[in-house]
Amino acid sequence: MAEAHPVLHQPWIAGDKSPAQVTDEICANMERHPSAAWWIAFLVSVAVMIIGFAAIGYQLKTGIGTWGLNTTVGWAFDITNFVFWIGIGHAGTLISAILFLFRQRWRTSVNRSAEAMTIFAVMCAGIFPLIHMGRPWLAMWMFPYPNFRGPLWINFRSPLVWDFFAISTYFTISVVFWYLGLMPDLATVRDHTRSVWRRKLAAILCFGWDSSYRTWQRYETVYLLLAGLATPLVVSVHTIVSWDFATAVIPGWHTTIFPPYFVAGAIFSGMSMVLTLMIVARKTMNLQDYITPRHLDAMCKIVLGTSGIVALAYITEFFTAFYSGNPYEQFAFWNRALGPMGWGYWIMVACNVLIPQLYWSRRVRTSVVAVFIISLLVNVGMWFERFVIIVSSLHRDYLPANWTGYAPTIIEIATFAGTFGFFFTCFLLFCRFVPVIAISEVKGILSHGQPRGLHHAAANEPSGEGKPELVGAGALRRATGEVRP
Amino acid sequence: MSRRLLLGVFDNEHDILGATQAARESGYKIVDVYAPYAVHGLDHAMGLASSHLPRVCFALGLSGAAFKVWFEYWTTATDWPINVGGKPFNSLPAFVPVTFEVMVLFAGVSTVIAFLYVCGLFPGKKANIVRHDVSDHRFVLVLEQSDAAFDIPRVKRLLESFHVAQIEERLEEETAR
Description:
The complex is a heterodimer of chains A (485) and B (177). With 485 residues, chain A is an all-alpha fold.
């Protein structure tokens, strides 16, 4: 049956690995002592994180007057950082849920670390609105619990309340999804590791996973259901984040294009962050056979596609402002590109629209160095996109007497740097203590030992293995996932 | 009452698929199959019915959403109505985003809890491990030696036609379930 598909892909995992080899190679990263490079990266991250937490402590003690905000620019650095980090997180869910539904089998090499990235990025994002509340020790007031203040309930018509529910649900579902995927691999660690404490810990954390197929069958069902739930969820989260702006009547914010524009931008920036992290991880952790140039190529294509969507959104915004005939709307966009903060706009256009066009070239997409540099630039560009949307729309409002500028204070910069420290500290710990690649999922797409349907197997003797029609059914199911559309 | 089990250990996905299908067609009782990853088609080979978990997901998602709509209506329009910008107390369209989020939360978390409950998994549970390499690279087919018709040499021949790597007999105490 599989012979009916002559044009089959090369396998996604290089080196014709056997399942046992996969277990060994991925667990090896947890078994050996961390390298000097890991320690340097870890200590630098922890140091930056401590600086950030010191800055947060100072802000909590003194108040958010330590920020560069003024009465005209009421939202700036913190909300920019919040949207930036939430956007980073979205690629993890794209890879784990949306690409799962689309049967993109290359996702198995990157989904574990991309989901971890999502969780850490959402944690970083949550820090900013928490501080911005001014009195974060009353953060539980966001939650509608019976209280002695009336009971006074929260305002369910407010986009900020929607945001609170969206982010909390997103974080919870991401953690649950990630942990569910981790359970079979923790069982593998339990059965494989030489360290006694790691075996004991994995035995507790894997919930007594015994590899029974009855469990596997239900597990697959739950995985599919969660993927189906997480797909609209991830779209809803950045949609709701964009409503924080779009429901306001500020020119430059009050547009219906915001939800798709924000969601595409989130996937664009998140996928670039995944590329940045994966390029470092594959090099330092010997995962070149698992994360191959083909994986990078596939992710670059997603970056290129979303870059196109973002570019279209930039153009549409200007066209709509022109076509609306509304002088305030027109001024907001003229000011965005050519006003005193126009430099931010042009950094954004260069990094988000022009530079990603290099990905049309296969040579660029498969060059690890080029991809790494471009992915960093895209993240710079996407940070500026949020900064431009937020600050350039606010700093020149309806009344010219109110016009002002905005510059972040050292405290704000230290807080933002601190979230990077926190993010990388978490990610480095994750790389050390958790299987960075979904072992059980990768085993399912190996070419090793498959009777037919893959490049090297055609030479197998025609006598076949066991019952041909049965083998054919399995091979066909495998093969259909591999056929180039 | 103790059961006598026969374990066939396999190295390849297609061998376990074939052997499981053949064993079921020959009428042997399959206790369970152990695999290092979710082998596609093995549920059909074992004759497993599809899981009921989607129903749990649907029911709990629906109840979460219904509960949330009621709660939003009750808090905003009944318990303590507050005039916010002249909007109606019962602003149903504005309730949609939170309702959706709560639906996803209920459906997702409850499905996972139901999964753990149905499979009997909980933190710290002592796993009953058939072989240490089933989480690594081996596949194990566990058959029950149910009655006198269970002719061991015949079963062995059947398993050998699927390149069985090892055959083992055990008493039930070692592999419950």
